[in-house]
Amino acid sequence: MAKTDHAEHLAMPQDDRRRTSVVDTPAFAEHGPLVDHKVPQAEVVQQEPDLAWSRIRHYLREPFSEFFGVFILILFGDGVVAQVVLSNGEKGDYQSISWGWGLGVMLGVYSSGISGAHLNPAVTLANCIFRKFPWRKFPGYMLAQVLGAMAASAIVYANYKSAIDLFEGGPGIRTVGLETSTAGIFCTYPAPFMTKTGQFFSEFIASTLLMFLIYALKDDGNIGAGPLTPLCLFFVIFGIGACFGWETGYAINLARDFGPRLVSYMIGYGHEVWSAGGYYFWVPMVSPFCGCVFGGWLYDTFLFTGESPINTPYMGLQRLVQPKRSVWSNTYGDNKV
Amino acid sequence: MAKTDHAEHLAMPQDDRRRTSVVDTPAFAEHGPLVDHKVPQAEVVQQEPDLAWSRIRHYLREPFSEFFGVFILILFGDGVVAQVVLSNGEKGDYQSISWGWGLGVMLGVYSSGISGAHLNPAVTLANCIFRKFPWRKFPGYMLAQVLGAMAASAIVYANYKSAIDLFEGGPGIRTVGLETSTAGIFCTYPAPFMTKTGQFFSEFIASTLLMFLIYALKDDGNIGAGPLTPLCLFFVIFGIGACFGWETGYAINLARDFGPRLVSYMIGYGHEVWSAGGYYFWVPMVSPFCGCVFGGWLYDTFLFTGESPINTPYMGLQRLVQPKRSVWSNTYGDNKV
Amino acid sequence: MAKTDHAEHLAMPQDDRRRTSVVDTPAFAEHGPLVDHKVPQAEVVQQEPDLAWSRIRHYLREPFSEFFGVFILILFGDGVVAQVVLSNGEKGDYQSISWGWGLGVMLGVYSSGISGAHLNPAVTLANCIFRKFPWRKFPGYMLAQVLGAMAASAIVYANYKSAIDLFEGGPGIRTVGLETSTAGIFCTYPAPFMTKTGQFFSEFIASTLLMFLIYALKDDGNIGAGPLTPLCLFFVIFGIGACFGWETGYAINLARDFGPRLVSYMIGYGHEVWSAGGYYFWVPMVSPFCGCVFGGWLYDTFLFTGESPINTPYMGLQRLVQPKRSVWSNTYGDNKV
Amino acid sequence: MAKTDHAEHLAMPQDDRRRTSVVDTPAFAEHGPLVDHKVPQAEVVQQEPDLAWSRIRHYLREPFSEFFGVFILILFGDGVVAQVVLSNGEKGDYQSISWGWGLGVMLGVYSSGISGAHLNPAVTLANCIFRKFPWRKFPGYMLAQVLGAMAASAIVYANYKSAIDLFEGGPGIRTVGLETSTAGIFCTYPAPFMTKTGQFFSEFIASTLLMFLIYALKDDGNIGAGPLTPLCLFFVIFGIGACFGWETGYAINLARDFGPRLVSYMIGYGHEVWSAGGYYFWVPMVSPFCGCVFGGWLYDTFLFTGESPINTPYMGLQRLVQPKRSVWSNTYGDNKV
């Protein structure tokens, strides 16, 4: 009908203008809407002068985005621990650390909307399973996240080098686990009384909470945080740090923990970065994946009414048995399972 | 008129899109609008494949929602107390506790929009009295809230078991009211100088404040917090904790106090969980109901101009004398008294 | 033109729906828009059953609103000082006090949108001068504000009576200015090293800042905080407390200081509540009026482009020379000077 | 086409109304949109009575706006340091200082939307380079920013004069770098262990972070903070203070550091305000410019897809080789390079 066409014609640009000008945060949705959002971005690039760098960047825009998101996160996160530890608590306390990590995530999310602001391989994994995020992107995201964390922790080290020398007792002294050790600036080490099970369980709960709450905040069928999502993530991370942050240091993120740990090993903190806490290093690499998947499953099973494998016959497992191109790619074909 | 039809046709989908995509929080309203909001949800479920679990979940969606809301609340709330107490204040202080409970409520609200995010039997009661929330739902809500609190406190216990053993002085030692006691992690115990009247009064004031402010934040005839409501509730809870939290620990919630108290009794903290503070345990069970009803009455009497028994002849008491189906149910019949 | 009519027809209900449903805070504007906002409220009351109480309340709705706004403010504000002082800093510190007053103002504003949320006679005065708030309302507002503060401080006293007895050293002992004194819970006393000029100046700066920032936050020609205004006021009050709160305790409000001071005198704190600090009590009664008027003048002179006496020939002083009814009333007549 | 005209006709006033009434913050954009935004402001002034002051103010509105923005910033920022230092940490701690500077920036931004809320000459420079802010405005902005900082620090000094006398040990004693020195209230001095390279690097990182995050928050192609931008800047400044604030005091702003330093020299703190820290004073004058330009370059190169020299052939350098009027002015001519 002509009237309908007219209505659509009227409605479209208005909707478009509202979306970009007011408070919509389309980029934070990892599923359908994100894909739609990227199409106009691609068009923008085509309208730009045909520069070599623009083309390269367009191809790498998602890894760049994840890189800088994690970069910002670790810059604030490792930075605040460095300041608190090295100043002997004069320029901050445990509260500051909760602030630093919380706002690191918040501002990292604001920096990486182009890629959906995962900032965490475990979140990417859960999105692959529950939100149809293309599996083929998983390795690239994870690599970018780890590299971003490594770059940021190296910069934190460079910035606080003199203070670390002073704190450790001399240039080049780098130790783990002593009173004057500074390895804890970069990655997490568990409290001494923890068993291996307790370590795993603590990281598991924190990761479950993280993923459950991310899905709650982004669910329009629930209240939904909308444009307040990054601010709410500040509270989520602050809360996890204040409530479950003591025993294992709430890594809840392979990139956040493994990347800086590798850097601290390269800097010269020695083999203890791996062996400390009874070879604790693998716990924050494995447990967040389990926790985030469980948290996503919990939310989708009990509260989510949108499109999810949980709300699909046979839990959508035939998606794995009969993989279509759409499982791997969001570029061609239909996005329905 | 054709023009009017045209206008409606144009207006409707636009309105619809705005409602879901921007910042509306329909689910947080416990009265009329919530009902409207649920109808489309039911339709969504019908469009989904006809799975057994989807049908069960649809029937239980409100108890599930309250369960997880309180679950998140207690996970953060009891978790932060555990971390502060067990680390001897090294990993947090009283400020952290205010943060933890505040953000626990905020994130619990975000998780339980489907059921209206009461998280507290006393809030449910006040909504039944002042906002036409169906009375028949009261028992189910209360049960779900208590069970959510029990589940969360059990998980907090499991997570901090080693640290509790260390703090109490050995595995299996669980005490109430000593220097090394950990019962205060789970539920509230009054300050020693409080009389029974003082205990009741302190909880009463805090509950009154809570309900008064919830109704203020949700009143569109006032400023109204709209999509900022969960964030504002963070400030409400933070404030109650900072200003009226010392004397009785601001339970202001039967589910938050009785559920974890029962769990701590089951764990083995002994009969003292009931007898401590002069059998204090019943105060946070009774006083919040009185306070919340009074707070709701105060707001409706002096400031609320919307639909309320206060603004109804004979204070709407004929609703109790001549109960219609609508008093008990929001599914059939008209919703007018 | 028919097309224009059509457009208006289309536009009007949409605009209306957006205004009420999304994030508009009309009630927080003390000038023109507030008046428009109240007209529909009056209509709502007429549609309600014709109850005696509804009629009384409609007449007193603005004083009630200011009463409860200040009531909430002082309940949190005096409450947090009581908790911090009486628990010897165990249940809070100076940070908590900044939080308590900040969120007290924020939640008080949310409670008193019906009257424009002044919460402070000096703000009411500045609005009379710069924003055409009707002068005839000034006495009623001020009275309601003082009464609200008195009621709240009495409740704080009742709640913390046992703890005050304990802190002062015995029941009935109430002192000012000693180590164990508790008069500072209720109203402000200056630091001992302050001269009278310094006291006045400190209150003056803080009040100037307050009014300047209120006008900045509410100026649509500037960025404008819109629905975030109450939250921003939290930051304003927090900031004044953290930056200019030490020397005189940042009363910046006759109602906040004089009301509770009177209550503390009635309770039995003795003549010292007036004589302490060299009869300091009049400074927070006078200085905020000077500061707020100066702050409003500063903003309007240098930044405000809207309707203000500053932007009017002869600074609008003929308004005082030739008073029209509109100067005193917002009910009848035109609102133009 | 007539239909398109109709659509535009319909769309325009709606869009206009939404822009002003809801949550748009056009004034915070330093490029194109800001210019559009000012045109109606100019029209408003013309509709006002033709007052001499209105004309003068209209001409100086941008310097006034920057002046008051920095004025608010330094009032809170220097004020909080004064309160914490002079009260020996009784009325605040390092956390308070992070709060004070963070909310100083936030409220300063709200006060200075008319000029784009730069508050920092380095931000102005980056906007000139990357966002086509007219170069001719740079000197005026910088002057206004420095004068605003000077005025505010003089007021902080006046307010805390008695307390400074007490702290330094007598009236007129003003020292730098001792235990009882108060020069650190006004401007930053580096930690003693820092090398000159370390000082520069620390300021450089902090400034890079600042500019990178400002551009991220304001990029609609990213998530974009929209009306939450001032609140997010609170978190940015809080984070820089908590994570990179120890070593050099995070000046990251020539106006914030040089202005108050000059005032403290004029007050009588002596030549040490320049010579302290190995003539440190030039570092926070130079390093923020380098850091902010690098931060802007980083964001535009890797993440920004909008109009930027980075996305222009030859990086837009022909703009410098063949300067058009538009490079210097936003009043006449086209704004395209």
From TrEMBL, chains A, B, C, D:
<dbReference type="InterPro" id="IPR050363">
    <property type="entry name" value="MIP/Aquaporin"/>
</dbReference>
<keyword id="KW-0472">Membrane</keyword>
<feature type="transmembrane region" description="Helical">
    <location>
        <begin position="140"/>
        <end position="160"/>
    </location>
</feature>
<dbReference type="GO" id="GO:0015250">
    <property type="term" value="F:water channel activity"/>
</dbReference>
<keyword id="KW-1133">Transmembrane helix</keyword>
<feature type="transmembrane region" description="Helical">
    <location>
        <begin position="67"/>
        <end position="86"/>
    </location>
</feature>
<dbReference type="GO" id="GO:0005886">
    <property type="term" value="C:plasma membrane"/>
</dbReference>
<dbReference type="InterPro" id="IPR000425">
    <property type="entry name" value="MIP"/>
</dbReference>
<dbReference type="GO" id="GO:0015254">
    <property type="term" value="F:glycerol channel activity"/>
</dbReference>
<feature type="transmembrane region" description="Helical">
    <location>
        <begin position="200"/>
        <end position="217"/>
    </location>
</feature>
<dbReference type="InterPro" id="IPR022357">
    <property type="entry name" value="MIP_CS"/>
</dbReference>
<keyword id="KW-0677">Repeat</keyword>
<dbReference type="Pfam" id="PF00230">
    <property type="entry name" value="MIP"/>
</dbReference>
<dbReference type="InterPro" id="IPR023271">
    <property type="entry name" value="Aquaporin-like"/>
</dbReference>
<feature type="region of interest" description="Disordered">
    <location>
        <begin position="1"/>
        <end position="21"/>
    </location>
</feature>
<keyword id="KW-0812">Transmembrane</keyword>
<protein>
    <recommendedName>
        <fullName>Aquaporin</fullName>
    </recommendedName>
</protein>
<feature type="transmembrane region" description="Helical">
    <location>
        <begin position="279"/>
        <end position="299"/>
    </location>
</feature>
<feature type="transmembrane region" description="Helical">
    <location>
        <begin position="98"/>
        <end position="119"/>
    </location>
</feature>
<comment type="similarity">
    <text>Belongs to the MIP/aquaporin (TC 1.A.8) family.</text>
</comment>
<feature type="transmembrane region" description="Helical">
    <location>
        <begin position="229"/>
        <end position="252"/>
    </location>
</feature>
<keyword id="KW-0813">Transport</keyword>
